[in-house]
């Protein structure tokens, strides 16, 4: 039996990309899924697919930039399943442009989704894990959280923040003896809808060309499952996952 069997897993950004792939992978291993995203039609379709394949999934339309909605998501999971074992903090956006373009609204949105959304999820979900002295927080950072590149400055800043939040949470929970594990996953080029959030034409063209090397989101889903599957006394802290041919 997999160590994932019957674990209750909340996945944000579950309607596409890595979130959707992780949902399918974990469902196949017996997880009880709580799917969260803004697009109800996508969530319903994913729920139906999982259930038709013998898995368990419920969903709640959620905007991670709303602290209230994240609290409601945690309460929903606890009401339906009685516990939360794993949080996959996956929701994110990636608009790219040089700072001189002054796309301040995009900066604000990235900070709201990529940083505050991660923190709101932690604030809503970790207290119940601490109470049970068991849990696992998996944050999706990026290779951009390790390497800075022109045009990705603000995005890189948000993903460096996710990496720092992950390590800080890991240290704090280790010191507190709560048995909460923390994993920071940093994908490189992965097939997803992230590219569609870039509005700068020149930057979008460059990203489209670069992402010809992208690996499938299932590759990241399997890594997430690997981290969860470890015995409770083993914490996979950091995973950086690139296409074999990706240099930076």
TrEMBL record:
InterPro entries: KR_dom, NAD(P)-bd_dom_sf, Sc_DH/Rdtase_CS, SDR_fam. SUPFAM superfamilies: NAD(P)-binding Rossmann-fold domains. GO terms for molecular function: oxidoreductase activity, acting on the CH-OH group of donors, NAD or NADP as acceptor. Residues 7-188 form the Ketoreductase domain. It holds the Pfam family adh_short. It comes from the Bacteria. Keywords: Oxidoreductase. The keyword Hydrolase does not apply. Belongs to the short-chain dehydrogenases/reductases (SDR) family. This is Oxidoreductase. It comes from Niallia nealsonii.
